Amino acid sequence: MTAPDAAGLRRRTRELLAAHPPASTGRTDFLKARFDAGLAWVHYPVGLGGLDAPRSLQPVVDAELAAADAPDNDPRRIGIGLGMAAPTILGFGTDEQKQRFLRPLWVGEEVWCQLFSEPGAGSDLAALGTRAVRDGEDWVVDGQKVWTSSAHLARWAILIARTDPDVPKHRGISYFICDMTDPGVEVRPLRQITGEAEFNEVFLTGVRIPDSRRLGPVGEGWKVAQTTLMNERVSIGGSRIPREGGMIGPVARTWRERPELRTHDLHQRLLNLWVEAEVARLTGERLRQQLVAGQPGPEGSGMKLAFARLNQEISGLEVELLGDEGLLYSDWTMRRPELVDFTGRDAGYRYLRSKGNSIEGGTSEVLLNIVAERVLGLPSEPRNDKDVAWKDLSR
Amino acid sequence: MTAQTEPGRAPDLLYSEAEEDLRAAVRSLLADRADAPSVIARTESDTPYDPQLWKALATGIGAAGLLVPEELGGQGATHREAAVVLEELGRSVAPAPYLTSSVVATETLLALGAPDGPAGELLAGLAEGRKVAVLAVPFSAASSVTGSVDGALGPVADAAAADVLLVPAADGLHAVATDAPGVGIEPLVALDLTRPLATVTLDGVSGTRLADAETSRRAVDRGLLAGAGLLASEQLGLAEWCLTETVRHTRERHQFNRPIGSFQALKHRMAQLWLEVVSARAAARNAADALATGSPDTPLAVAVAQAYCSKVAVHAAEECVQLHGGIGMTWEHPAHLYLKRAKADATAYGTAGRHRETVAALMELPAP
Predict the structure, then answer these.
(1) pTM metric for this prediction
(2) Average pLDDT score, chain A
(3) Are B267 and A369 a contacting pair at CB < 8 A?
(4) How many pairs of residues across A and B have Cβ atoms under 8 Å apart?
(5) Disulfide: which of A244, A327, B189, B313 matches B235 by Cβ 3.0-4.6 Å?
(6) 3 state DSSP class of A169
(7) Min CA distance, A281 vs chain B (Å)?
(8) Which residue of B has its CA nearest to A378?
(9) Cβ contact (<8 Å) for A379 and B307?
(10) What are the φ/ψ torsions at residue B365 (nearest 5 degrees)?
(11) Which residues from B are below 8 Å from A368, CB to CB?
(12) Would you say B356 and A272 are in contact if contact means Cβ atoms under 8 Å apart?
C-alpha cells in the first residue's frame, strides 16, 4: 500500500467520522477506532495507529477532526507517553511490545512516566546508579529516581538502569519498561518551590522486570535513551502560536486594563520583553515551517533556552507590575496536579514554576554546551570519565 | 486599525530556491571584489565606493532593480529578494549605496505612484544602475521629516555617491541633481567607515517637484519603513559573519594548551549569540515578507525586527571583538569594521527605543 496524500487522509478521516459519529460514540471508543483507522499518528506504521504517511500531513487529519468536534486524547495528560515512550518503543521495541503498548498509550488508557533522573545523576544522566541485576528470566532493580512527573498516575514507566558497573558509564546501561504496579515500586510526592507536588520520587526495591520488557540490547540503553531525549526536545513546534500566546499575554492584558499600575521602568522592560516574546514566536514559526518543508533546522535546541529565559523574565516582571497584589500568593496547600501547568494560577505561581524551565528537560547550561558543540562545532571540554569503569568514578 | 489582530496569512519565513541562487551570486561577487583588506584600503582612500563592484552588483546581477516592476525597467522581484542582497552586504560590510538608493529612494519613488512622470524616469535610471539617488534626510530618521530646499541637513548616508537627491520640502518631494548649482555635499568623518555620511547644503537650488506634499509625505514614510525593515537583514548578515568568524577563531586559537573555543565560558557566549542570530533571522524574514506582501502587519513587523536586530548586530560585533582578544582591537582585522557598522546601524532609520515606542502604540501598551 502506498502512503496516502492529503486528499486520501481527508477522505479516510471523513469515513472514520461517518462510521463513528463523535456525538453518539464514547470518547475511548472513538479514540480506539481512530487508532485502528491509522489516523492517530499518520507517520506511524500501518497497524500501529498510522499509515506510513509524511508526518507533515497530520494537521490535515487534526483539522478535520477538530471541525467535527471529535474527542482528542488529551495530549497534555499523556505527554510523556506520546513524546518519549512511544517513539522509543517504535524505534527499539519488539513487535510484541509495539502491539501491547502503543494503542493504550495513544488512547490514553495507560499513562506513562519516565524513570531517568536520579539524585546523583541529573545533567550527568549517564552517571546513574540504579542497578538491574539479571536473575533467570528477570532483572532485579534497586535504586532511586527523582523528578518523575505523573508517576502517581502512571501505569508504565520507561526506565534506565545500570546492568554493568565494570565498563565506562555510557556502556553499562540498559533500557526497560517498568510496571508501576509491581511490588517494590514506591512513589512519594516531591513537594516543590510552588508548594504543590507535581513531581515524585520513585524508590525501586527488588523490583522484578521480565527480560521481555527490555528495550534494545543489554548495555545499549544509553543509545536508546538518546532517542527518547531527542524526541523530548523536538516535541516543540507542532502548531502555530498566536501573538501574545505565551506568558507575555496575561502581562500585556494587565497593562492595558490597569493603567494605575504603569511606571516608566516597567514600560521599558515590558516593551523589551514583548518584542523578545514576539521574536521567539516567529522563531518557533520559522522552525515549524522548516519541519513542514522537510528541512528541520537545529533551531529546536535553542527554543527551549529562549522560552525558559523569557518565561522567567516575564513572570518576574509580572509580580512587580502587580504591586501589592504581587505580594500575595493564591494558596500554599500541597496539591497533586494532574497536569503540568506553566501558565495557570497567579503571577507568583508563574514566577516560581518558571524557575524550573531552565532545569527540567536539560538545564540551560547543558543545552548551551550542546548548541556550542553540535551546532557550532566548537571543541568539547576535556573529559576524564570516558575510559574509566563506572564503579571507579568518584561520586 | 491596530496591529493587535492576528494577520490571517502566515508569513513565509523560509528562503526560496531563487533567493538562495541570488544569495550565491551576490556572495561570490562580494568575495571577489570586497574582501576585508580591500574594504579597509578603500575606506582610507578618497573613493570609498568601488564603482566596478557597484556596476556588477547593480547591473550585472540586477540587484538595483529588484523592487522595481519590469514595466518600469526593473526586475519585478520583491523585498524578500532585496533582503537577501542586504544579508550578503551586511556579511561583507562592503561600501555600496544599496540600502539608501535601491531600497529607500527606490521605494519612495515607487510609492509616489506616478510612473509616467519624472519619478518614473528616475526609477528606471536607479533600477538599471545608471543612477544613484538618496533621500536627503538624516540617516537616523525613522519617519518623514520635512526639510526645505534651502539650508543644511545631515548626516545623509551615501550622499557622496549620489547623482540625485530626493529632498522632502514643505510643498512636496523634489528631485535635485547633485551637480546642480547651489548643491553642496560636505563629507563628514563618520563612525562607520563603510557607509560614508555627508552634510548636504542647498542654496536656492531648483529641482523637479515630484508630487504634492501629502503624497510625498506618505511616500517618504513608506521609503523609510522599507529601509528600516530591510536594514534588519543587513544586521542579520553582519551578525552572522561575526558569529562565524568568532567560532572559527576560537576553534583555532590555542591558550592553556587547549583551543579557547573549548572553554565553557566562551562556548556559552557563542551559543547564546547563535540563538540571537536565528531569532534575528525570523524577525528579519518576517519584516521582509510583510513588506513584500503588503501585509497590514508591516509596521509592527518592521518595528519588531528593528527593535530586535539592532541589538543582536551590536552584541555580535562586540562579542567578536572581545573573543578575538588583542587581534580584535587591531586595524588590520576587519572586526572593527563590523562593530562600527553595527553601532551606526543601531541608530539608522530609528533606534531600537524609537521602534519599541512604535510597538507600544500599535499594540496599545501605552507609557504611564
Answers:
(1) 0.92
(2) 92
(3) yes
(4) 131
(5) B313
(6) coil
(7) 9
(8) B261
(9) no
(10) -120, 70
(11) 267-268, 271-272
(12) yes
